[in-house]
Amino acid sequence: MIKKALILLAIVFVAAACSSSDEGPGTTNDNFDRTALLTNLADNIIVPALENFQTKLSDLDVARGNFINDINESNLNLLSDAWLEAYKAWQHIEMFNIGEAETQGGSAKGFVVFFNIYPVTVSEIENGAASGVYDLNSANYHDAQGFPALDFLIHGVAVSDTNPIEKFTTNANAIGYIDYMTNVQSQMNSKFSAIINDWQNTYRDIFVANLASSSTGSFSKIVNDFVFYYEAGLRRNKVGIPAGNFSNMPLPEKVEAFYKKDVSKILALEAMNAVVDFFNGRSFDNSTNGEGFANYLDYLERSELKTAIIDQFNTARQKIEVLDNNFYQQVNTDNTKMTEAYDALQMAVVLLKVDMMGAFQVSLDPGYQDNDGD
Amino acid sequence: MPSKLNTYFKAQTNAAPLAVFRIGFGVMMLASIIRFWSYGWIEKLYIEPKFHFSYYGFEFIKPIGNYTYLIFIICGLSAAFIALGLKYRIAIITFFLSFTYIELMDKTTYLNHYYFISVLSLLMCFLPASAYFSLDAIIRKKQYHQIPKWTIDAIKLLLGIVYVYAGLAKINSDWLFKAMPLKIWLPSKYDLPFIGDNILQQEWFHIAMSWSGMLYDLSIPFLLLYKRTRVFAFVLVVFFHIFTRVLFPIGMFPYVMIVGTLIFFDAKVHERLLEVFRKLFKFLKLKYVKLETSTYSFSNQNIILPILGLFFAIQLLLPFRYMLYPNELFWTEEGYRFSWRVMLMEKAGYAEFKIVDAKKGQSFSVNNSDFLTPFQEKQMSTQPDFILEYAKYLEQHLKAQGHENIEIYVDSYVALNGRSSERYIDPKVDLLKQTESFKPKNWILPFKDEIKGL
User: Fold this and answer.
1) The complex's ipTM?
2) The whole model's pTM is what?
């Protein structure tokens, strides 16, 4: 009896192993279409977000040029506006540490090191402006370039100055500051052109075509990037660190855009929007909903998890919305609201990192290792 | 009955199966070590991490910096010596000690396969595996063509325990009725050729796989024992292990099991295999040495048999120690290791540690990646003994930095076999007030579902 059963099972096994796809891929309705997912992410979200950033980055460059040609208060304000617009656009691409962006940085943080490591180390900028000696490609200057460095240059006050514009006019190192600003801008321009050129020329197709289920597959990489950004870029850096969740006391000076001050909430909400839209597969121009993580969870019969994640995102957004525009101010006056926002963001980390990644069977560890599942 | 036992332990049999087993084991283990090294895993798993998770009672066994490579060299060399049958007794003891040392260095890497190798090599220390077809035989100019029958049966018994216990562990409601965790794992292999995007996506297939896996494990040792079903069983063994190898990253284990189950075959088959080896090495033009042939007999069988009796008693009982613990085994993992529970769980977790300065009333969270590798963090976040050990390590680290009056709490969530994540450890318990022991850990929160079965 057992023998017969086993023979039967063996037949099942062999049949299972040998049967080729008789319907052919794409014709079955119950298989999730990963090509459509990656195509939607690339064509409707990632590339448009990168192109939007490209526009804002070049506007910033123009504003910087105008300011340097004619240093006055009004041009500085225009530069500040352009900086904020570009910084907002950045919030939509920081999570895409993939392809050339990943290669550029060389470490887990990827291209972010050239754009948004904060708090900025002012002494590096001061020394650089005074001596003219600095290397923005060196890891030592990761915390002295990108948006945080421009934030200090545009809005901050240098040694012996009382107002931001003085460092470009009366300060002994005025030329040094102007050069530093120019160099930071060209660093951003050149790093970003390499990234967007890669997407526009070759990487988009590579990304969409790489359907491997392993950790090198596009899906696994983009899920990892998304969760990492949510956990570190948004939850920890923007809220957790200033609120003191990772230190003995609150560290308000570690907020994003510390020198401009009143835009921290705007940037955090932009980031939140980027995260929610990406999760839902909503196009960058907000016109359509395509394949995203949300309907992949539906496909996996985990709709309850999808709903839980979306609800938690909403809760987190509400907790951020009640904060002061200026997180530095918020931490100093009523840090409880700040930690409440952190806790709300944190709850979604569990859902994303434990439940969603488990459902997707995406490995956290990029390294391959033996496993017997226990 | 005693006389029957007596006769059994005096019975002799052809030594060829054990010789082939020894050669297969040595070659496989040498290949394993080389493979492990070539992937850079020694560096990644034993040299790079700042901290290593120890087995309870074996805290003194740690990687020894760059000398760790030396242990692997010793282990690999002894495997080669085992294959050749050169200084076998010393080689197998050295292998057992070095391999087991490697396994005890960090429990992050615990795998049933590795435990199996340790246990098997311990057993092999007592067996006359170089009696026949070995360099030892040439050196002593004497070979033993007949060895005690029980020595071969001991290996069959161990293999049988592994299979049957693995099968028994599969008799649970998650595995059989929910097809968990295969239902999560198989669809994610969508890029496998031919089967990936169709059959692996079907629920009936997940259930068929679960049931047949259970039946396979429970029946294969018996099918291998009987001559009439043996060849069929072996085909099944080869097919099953190759199939699982294709589906999962399980390294050398399938090949070890395929080669291992050859021991169930008759001596004739093994003699033919040895003939193949002889022909393979003909080019060496070794001068044919006429060896004196005799029958192997243990001078100390009366000591060895009780030792092995104890060994097998432990093997039979240890996997059931979980019954002494309350709560769900899969959730608490108290008594989970060393019990042949293979591929039964999909567990994911998240653990954030909060350091509290009790006097100042300040607290902060730890960034785990400052201390652990991603692999360590993954293992730590779903296993209570890891969580406790890590908390103690953090305490040491913080005390060295001058922190005092600290308490450590953990905010942790675990998702098991497709269930939604639930809080795992009581967040109000100061982990530093807990100690590791064999006692139940009452600070693990209860499992909110039920998994029926063994």
Assistant:
1) 0.85
2) 0.89
